[in-house]
Design brief:
6-stranded antiparallel β-barrel; 6-stranded antiparallel barrel
């Protein structure tokens, strides 16, 4: 579990084929300072497990499903990545609850620089649009952000906007984002649960009908 507060920007140093996935090595001095075998580290929003490590690096396996769902599909040595260690149970929840389970990817459409911050518009997949609300939480490349604007429900090419303060621009890879940059997206876990629950509200669903019958409500 993570909070979406990036601790350092690391760099991919090696990518090796491993079955239908890859084995990824990342330079991450802070992240490995107290890491152990089997620990979780968020790499640009993707929860990965440490399988090997050195003084300033760690290696993790990335399965095919993760490659298919995230921007790690075309990862190569030299890429900068946002890193965050799993949060401690006694720590402060500075961002929001982030699982490191990517829902899909989006593409930066526009970056509008301001005097103190930048507004970034990201095009998102249609199936994720209902899970994103104005002033709600979103994790973009592992960064906990507040949605500052959303497209209308009727738009065929949905989008969201976030406003990035100087600290976020400096401390994360989003400060280097430009139009066309692909990004990882993780929607709010509460929104995903509500969507799933609503899918079972219809009495035409066999599972719901059976459950209601068992309770004697039908």
């Amino acid at each position: 579990m993570f909070t979406g507060i990036v601790e350092e920007i690391g760099a991919v140093t090696a990518v090796e084929p491993s079955g239908d996935g890859v084995r990824l090595t990342v330079r991450a001095p802070l992240s490995v300072s107290d890491a152990g075998h089997g620990d979780s580290i968020s790499v640009s929003g993707v929860c990965l497990t440490v399988v090997d490590q050195g003084e300033d690096w760690f290696t993790a396996d990335v399965m095919k499903q993760t490659l298919d769902m995230s921007t790690l599909a075309d990862v190569a040595p030299g890429r900068s990545v946002n890193l965050e260690r799993a949060t401690a149970a006694h720590g402060r929840l500075g961002g929001h609850i982030v699982q490191g389970h990517i829902d899909g990817t989006g593409v930066v459409r526009e970056v509008r620089p301001g005097a103190q911050w930048s507004v970034v518009r990201v095009g998102i997949p249609s199936h994720l649009a209902p899970l994103v609300v104005d002033k709600g939480s979103i994790a973009i490349d592992g960064v906990s952000l507040t949605v500052s604007a959303v497209s209308a429900a009727s738009e065929t090419e949905p989008w969201l906007e976030v406003s990035l303060i100087p600290e976020t621009l400096e401390a994360t890879t989003l400060g280097r984002a430009e139009a066309g940059t692909p990004v990882n997206l993780e929607t709010d876990i509460l929104a995903r649960h509500v969507q799933r629950m609503l899918a079972f509200r219809t009495t035409e669903n066999p599972a719901v009908t059976a459950a209601q019958t068992e309770r004697g409500s039908v």
